[in-house]
Design brief:
There is one protein chain. The chain has 78 residues and is mainly alpha-helical. Helices cover 65% and strands 0% of the residues. The longest helix has 26 residues.
């Protein structure tokens, strides 16, 4: 998983592009597992960015933020 903001944004773009490509192929049922993996990785990237921003805002080192497991990021309430 990328560890700086620019790398995280790059990873987000790549995952989003892959997600759109799969959906445009017209048979996402065949790729349902991969789409689920992508959704989890997107959530993990966004969570990592939020952690880094919060640490920066409160004077902590953003590089101490870490990727949380899928169960954690998928369990958040909207």
């Amino acid at each position: 998983m990328p560890d700086d903001d620019a790398a995280i944004f790059h990873r987000l773009r790549a995952l989003t592009d892959e997600e759109h490509e799969i959906k445009q192929q017209g048979s996402p049922g065949d790729e349902a597992g991969r789409l689920q993996e992508i959704e989890v990785m997107l959530d993990q990237c966004w969570d990592l960015l939020r952690q880094r921003r919060a640490k920066r805002e409160f004077g902590a080192d953003p590089d101490t933020a870490s990727v949380r497991d899928a169960g954690t990021v998928e369990g958040y309430q909207q």
